[in-house]
Structure formats: structure tokens, C-alpha cells
């Protein structure tokens, strides 16, 4: 799903194609989840943004916003497969099939939640062409809202104020000392700490795995069991990975050749999940989340969470325990909107709007050949070792 680097990519294209432009029309489509879950509506969004001049765009972790010449401003979250598309340029950061290279994107795109249209105009003395921008979200895990405050106060308003600092935008806050204090006052697996958006903004599954791999840290070791040197190494990896992801706009072709991110996706395939140096990548599942890990590099140096499962030892995913409640988070857990869709469970990974979608960790494989239970007409006494059963009943 879009993480800190992918959101930087969205912000880049918004600045490139929309900043300084006036939104002539906004065609918005009602969605009681994408808008409704955060107290907005397509009608209100269209009314508030139509006719407004775009003055800027920025991000905090997985959130991004577009500011206008007057409030309210648009604050958005892409969820699991959302994206912002432009008719003048293909902005996708991933294409699943080679044959898609060079293929023109469909327009208007499917799964639109709104489309902004800017007419041809002069901006700072430069002629600008007609441009259309569409927010798309096939799985409806994204969120679109309006925030009524001054543009420079957005991060002090909800939902951003409830989220932790951004490791790239807020390097003056995310220091070694800050990270140490955070880790020592909690007792959770280190990966869980990194993924919690209330602690840090923007770190998702692949970024967390890359950080832990670079720091030689086991994902399930409790965060309060690390020494000062390990914390410093972890901090350096966190800042380094997030910064490069943002600077390259999530273009994996520009990532270092030894990053685990480039080799982690082919789980279960023959001759896959091996780094160039021959080290093997395995997958651990904890609490419904999958971690890619290199055991020869990521050693346990302290207490480790007890519920670790080795997915490579048993590829069959287990069904969640009945009656087990999910841990609720602030406002429909949009900060980590990585839950699988309720429909279509057990299907293989797909691609939506040109964005690769991993098979959700919580999915349960479809059970083949399920039928009504047969009731035996006669109980049969189990055979004892060494005995034989006759085909006929002896009298």
C-alpha cells in the first residue's frame, strides 16, 4: 500500500500539475465510507473545492493535503490501493505486467471518488494546458475530508495531530534520544511500534521490514530490550530508509541493490526470496501481519513475542480465533488502513489502478470441496493393531 515514499510521489505530482491552478469544476461521487466515515460528503467536497485556486500540497506520513486560497482545505489518505491520477501524465509507481509499459492509461479512470478539472490558463506568465486530476480507490479504504483552518495550522488539527512525527519532515523531533524514550516506555514487538501511526507517521509494512533488515533487528523482539548501540543503528536505518524512499518518490529502480524490498515479493515461488549474496528471506506472521526477514542477519538479542508463526514452514494461513476482537484505533484505523476487504477472501493478489496489491495477511484460503457433513448410518468399531476387517458381518 502507499507509504511515506509513495505519498511523497503523489505530493510531487500535485505540486507539478495543480499548484497555482484554479479548479474550474469538481465532479465528486457520493461514498458513505470514503467521505462519510470522516464526516464529509461528495456534495460538500465539490462545493468547497470548485472555483478555488490551489496554493500548495504537503504530507505527514501517509496523509497528504491540498491547500486553497481560503479554507477549508482537502486532507486525504489513500488507504490500501488509492491513488491520484492525472490525464496528462501516468504517475503510477508500479506496473504489474511488462506488457503494460507504454500502454496508455484509461481516462476517465475507474473507481473515481472525485475529479478536479483545471482549464487552460496562464500561471506566472506560463501557458498551462487543461488538466484533470482524479482520486481513485477501488477498495474504499481511503479517506477524503475537509479541514476548516488556516493552511499553516493543518498539522495542528485532526486527524494529523493524533499521529506521530514524520521521520523525514520532522527529523529535529525524531532523534536517537526521542526513539530511545519511546522504545523504553512501551513493551511491544519493535515492528508493531514502528507501524503504529500514533508513534510514527508514514512507516508501513515494507518500510518497517527494510528498516529492521538494515538495522539487523528481529521484528518480534520487544522494543524495550535494546541497548543504546542497537537503538542508534535502528534510528539511522529508520531515517535513511524513509529519506531515500521520499527522495526517489518510491521508485524502486533507484533503491540500493542490497535492499530486501527488491526481493521480498515473490513469497512461495521457486528460486525466489533469496538475496544476491545467497541469504534466504523467510516470512513470519504475527497477529495477522507478515514480516520479511533474513534470519542469518536479523538475530534475536532479547525477549521475543511468543506468537510468532513461521509462514515458510506452513504456507496455509490459519483462520483467526472465533470471538477474538480486533484492537480498535482512532477513527476507523485509517492511519493503517491495511485491512482486507470483506468480500473475495481467499483470492490471489491483484492490481488496482496500476498499483500492486499484496495478498492481505488476514485472508483465509477458500476451502475446497466443502459439503454437508455425512452422518454415518452405523458406528464402526475401530480396528485393533494386527486385526482385519471382513467385508461381510460375521454371525
Explain what this protein looks like in three dimensions.
The protein has 395 residues and is of the alpha+beta class. The chain has 2 domains: 4-162, N-terminal domain of MutM-like DNA repair proteins (Alpha-Beta Barrel), CATH 3.20.190; 176-320, Helicase, Ruva Protein, domain 3 (Orthogonal Bundle). The protein has helices spanning 4-17, 42-49, 176-184, 190-195, 205-214, 228-247; strands at 25-28, 54-60, 63-68, 73-77, 83-86, 112-118, 121-123, 126-128, 131-136, 143-147, 282-286, 289-293, 309-310, 351-352, 355-356. 17% of the residues lie in helices and 17% in strands. A 4-stranded antiparallel β-sheet has the order 1-6-9-5, covered by helices on one side. The longest helix has 20 residues, at 228-247. Residues 313-395 have low confidence and may be disordered. Keywords: DNA damage, DNA repair, DNA-binding, Glycosidase, Hydrolase, Lyase, Multifunctional enzyme.
